[in-house]
């Protein structure tokens, strides 16, 4: 049986959602973040050398990376659902958003997380003002302008039809969900009506709700 190696509060929630949309039977192997470091446990390295989630095992296949996993599931089990026909203009747009999610949208969000941790890190009292000044400078000079640029671009794309590929829900919407959920907490994503509406639509989907029930607590959906 296909198994999802699922880490709490992580990108693997997207994989559970995808499987629920497709109606595939699967098992969940659960892992918990270290409460101090928020990193995945070392036990995940027994599944994949990088020790990160999501990872799936499907027979003799072990596959990591959200986009690769979602594309594999669409190709192996989708039977043409949730993805446009290969070679079509819609397919090229679909592949673009599948790569954009992690390649372009997530890096500034990760930097925002890093600068927030720098500003709030435990350190000698005399070092805190310097650390906070560095973090604020990075945010103002690079991180926040990049977040505004990307979420403005995403919001404009969603204004056209409400979905990322044409006027129909697709795997690209599942892939893009994590940066938008994270951006609603760490960045200016929630300031855009089209992004808020997108999040409301996906959170109301029955398959999304079922994935939450099976996956457990997921802070980004709150």
From TrEMBL:
<dbReference type="InterPro" id="IPR004045">
    <property type="entry name" value="Glutathione_S-Trfase_N"/>
</dbReference>
<protein>
    <recommendedName>
        <fullName>glutathione transferase</fullName>
        <ecNumber>2.5.1.18</ecNumber>
    </recommendedName>
</protein>
<keyword id="KW-0808">Transferase</keyword>
<dbReference type="InterPro" id="IPR036249">
    <property type="entry name" value="Thioredoxin-like_sf"/>
</dbReference>
<dbReference type="InterPro" id="IPR036282">
    <property type="entry name" value="Glutathione-S-Trfase_C_sf"/>
</dbReference>
<dbReference type="GO" id="GO:0004601">
    <property type="term" value="F:peroxidase activity"/>
</dbReference>
<feature type="domain" description="GST N-terminal">
    <location>
        <begin position="1"/>
        <end position="81"/>
    </location>
</feature>
<dbReference type="InterPro" id="IPR004046">
    <property type="entry name" value="GST_C"/>
</dbReference>
<dbReference type="GO" id="GO:0004364">
    <property type="term" value="F:glutathione transferase activity"/>
</dbReference>
<dbReference type="InterPro" id="IPR040079">
    <property type="entry name" value="Glutathione_S-Trfase"/>
</dbReference>
<dbReference type="Pfam" id="PF00043">
    <property type="entry name" value="GST_C"/>
</dbReference>
<dbReference type="GO" id="GO:0005737">
    <property type="term" value="C:cytoplasm"/>
</dbReference>
<dbReference type="Pfam" id="PF13409">
    <property type="entry name" value="GST_N_2"/>
</dbReference>
